[in-house]
Amino acid sequence: VLLIEFKNVVKDYGNEVLGADRLSVRIDQGEFVYIVGPSGAGKTTFIKLMYHEVGATSGEIRVNDYDVSSITNKEVPFLRRELGVVFQDFKLLPRLTIFENIAYALQVIEKKPEEVEKRVNEVLKQVGLKDKAQNFPNEISGGEQQRVAIARAMANRPGILIADEPTGNLDPDTSEEIMEILEKINQDGTTIVMATHNSNMVNEHKHRVLEISAGKIIRDQEGGGYENE
Ligand code: ADP
Ligand code: ADP
Q: 206: CA distance to ligand 2 center in Å?
């Protein structure tokens, strides 16, 4: 089932280099896709176009049933319920506990309190952090903070999990733990799109690789490595 489709997408920031240059790609439900390429290649732009953090200059973007390229402001929050997003720097709210950080994501979409509590406990269990629920972000390790961010992204059961350099601030062992959690989430049926510079992870956990350079896809390889052999 086709889930994400880019057709001739251009993003012009007004710089010399396009953020996306006639980018076309199709991603099916259940896939795990890495986005690789040098700094400034357009990885983050590709990701931000998907959840309409930036708008395309031209071209078509479809995500699930949404025509993202012509989406209205009113529809954007609904699109974003179908996409969980995880960042390099975790982006947890420092004054809220781990439990509250995750609950907040559900409260804003008006889930009932009983439902919120049940779901927060489920996702905390999924990432192995039930015993840290009452801690604050600065009381736990970087790897644990990223697990909380993943739990928060998954709280609403999105069909797609987007991760922009999720292991960028983590040591190799912790990165491996995060990858194992992402693999499990993918095996449970969630589509994953992950931008990364982490060549070890790409080479050890083989998946489809999209390599971007100057806003263009220059390689699309099933089970590929970080670099073309
Ligand atoms: P990557 O994630 O691969 O490092 P980006 O998508 O962040 O690449 O950037 C792609 C290109 O678009 C770069 O040339 C970058 O400078 C430019 N760019 C990204 N975001 C903006 C922005 N908000 N304003 C202007 N230029 C931007
Ligand atoms: P990453 O390497 O993770 O893609 P960057 O450090 O390139 O992140 O970009 C951080 C932020 O700055 C992003 O929101 C991006 O859109 C913005 N940005 C990147 N390049 C430019 C640019 N040339 N002009 C303005 N904003 C930019």
A: 28
39 lines ligand 1 (CB under 6 A): yes
Residue whose Cα lies nearest atom 18 of ligand 2: it is 40
Distances (CA, A) of 143 to 53, 64, 74, 89, 103: 26, 31, 35, 11, 20
Report whether residue 138 contacts ligand 1, using a CB cutoff of 6 Å. no
Q: What is the DSSP letter of 15?
A: S
Q: Which of 104, 135, 136, 131 is nearest to 117 (CA)?
A: 104
Q: Which pLDDT tens digit goes with each residue over 3-41? A: 999 999 999 999 999 999 999 999 999 999 999 999 999
Residue 144's CB: how many other CB atoms inside 10 A?
20
Q: pTM of the entire structure?
A: 0.92
CA of 21 to the centre of ligand 1 (A): 12
Q: Which residues contact 41 (CB under 8 A, 6 or more apart)?
A: 212, 213, 214, 215
The protein residue with its alpha carbon nearest to ligand 1, atom 27, reads: 13
Does residue 75 sit in helix, strand or coil? Answer: coil
What ipTM was assigned to the predicted interfaces of this complex?
Answer: 0.78
CA angle 57, 63, 66 (to 5 degrees): 85
